[in-house]
Specification:
This protein has 247 residues and is of the alpha/beta class. The protein has two domains: 151 residues, Rossmann fold (3-Layer(aba) Sandwich), CATH 3.40.50.1220; 72 residues, SIR2/SIRT2 'Small Domain' (2-Layer Sandwich), CATH 3.30.1600. Helix content is 34%, strand content 22%. It contains eleven helices and 14 strands. The strands form four sheets. The chain has a seven-stranded parallel sheet with strand order 1-14-13-12-2-7-8, with helices on both faces. The protein has a three-stranded antiparallel sheet with strand order 10-9-11, covered by helices on one side. It has a two-stranded antiparallel ribbon with strand order 3-4. A hairpin with a 2-residue loop joins β3 and β4. The longest helix has 16 residues. The site of 2'-O-acetyl adenosine-5-diphosphoribose (OAD) has 27 residues, from α2, β3 and α11. The site of 2'-O-acetyl adenosine-5-diphosphoribose has 27 residues, from α2, β3 and α11.
Length: 247
């Protein structure tokens, strides 16, 4: 274990960043916090909706019991996110894509802010809040389509069955393609950044462990310690939007 708690970037990390070719970045809700998207955990708080913990309302069980309530929660979240812009952290990560020959961005966020900042080929582990999917035929719909979103008409135009948010809920499997791609890239990473995640939800929290096992240098950026902090080669305690643009 080699944890350097620091507020600036070390010479070692500067040098590794300068030389790196294969870079892997895992982001979580904290990367969008400075845009105004509430995190699920952190700061001693846990998100809730109408008194229900978020992991209950965002669960496969709730989808079966009460799809309209799940839509209400996701409609609320879309309404919040719609007015929001990417921040300096999203923009810095988007610039990194140009800089490294082999760059992978894996996000647990469903808000689409990495793409809005210009990131391409983002591996969205938990789906995207701007998409709906038919529970029966799997047809997908873009919820940025104003007409559909305004009508809140969540039925499938192909088969007439119900649509659900195209996001991964608690108790559901991750999209297989996304998981496989992320594992392959984590296994070849030289430098791995873990940004704004509480590192409590697996398999996402396992990618830095995979990267570490193959010798990658692991850097965490978070104002608070996480269960991954001890595994990291460097822990930069701070806000993503303030730290990432320093590279
Ligand atoms: P969490 O809400 O669990 O954790 C957010 C993390 O961001 C915390 O560790 C905060 O300390 C940190 N943080 C807050 N502000 C920050 C800032 N300005 N810069 C950097 N870090 C900051 O979010 P996730 O780890 O993303 O899954 O949560 C993982 C998954 O749990 C989510 O994708 C979601 C949730 O349930 C599903 O919905 C399936």
């Amino acid at each position: 274990m080699n944890v350097n708690q620091q507020t600036v970037i070390s010479d070692e990390l500067c040098e590794r960043f300068r030389r790196a070719r294969r870079v892997f970045v895992l982001t979580g809700a904290g990367v969008s916090a400075e845009s105004g998207v509430p995190t699920f955990r952190g700061g001693g708080q846990t998100a809730a909706w109408k008194g229900m913990p978020f992991d209950k309302i965002s669960s496969a069980g709730m989808l079966e019991r009460n799809l309209p309530e799940v839509w209400e929660w996701f409609n609320y979240r879309r309404d919040v996110i719609e007015k929001i812009e990417p921040n300096a952290a999203h923009h810095a990560i988007a610039r990194w894509q140009q800089r490294f020959p082999d760059f992978t961005l894996v996000t647990q966020n469903v808000d689409g802010l990495h793409e809005a900042a210009g990131s391409k080929d983002v591996i969205e582990l938990h789906g995207n809040i701007w998409r709906a999917r038919c529970i029966s035929c799997g047809a997908k719909y873009n919820l940025r389509d104003k007409e559909r979103a305004a009508a809140r008409d969540f039925t499938c135009a192909e088969c007439g069955n119900y649509l659900r948010p195209d996001v991964v809920l608690f108790g559901e499997m991750l999209p297989v393609g996304a998981l496989d791609r992320a594992v392959v890239k984590a296994k070849s990473a030289e430098l791995c950044f873990v940004v704004g995640t509480s590192a409590l939800v697996y398999p996402a929290a396992g990618f830095p462990e995979i990267a570490k096992a193959v010798g990658a240098y692991i850097v965490e950026i978070n104002p608070e310690p996480t269960p991954l902090s001890d595994l990291c080669d460097e822990v930069i305690q701070g806000k993503a939007g303030e730290i990432l643009p320093l590279f």
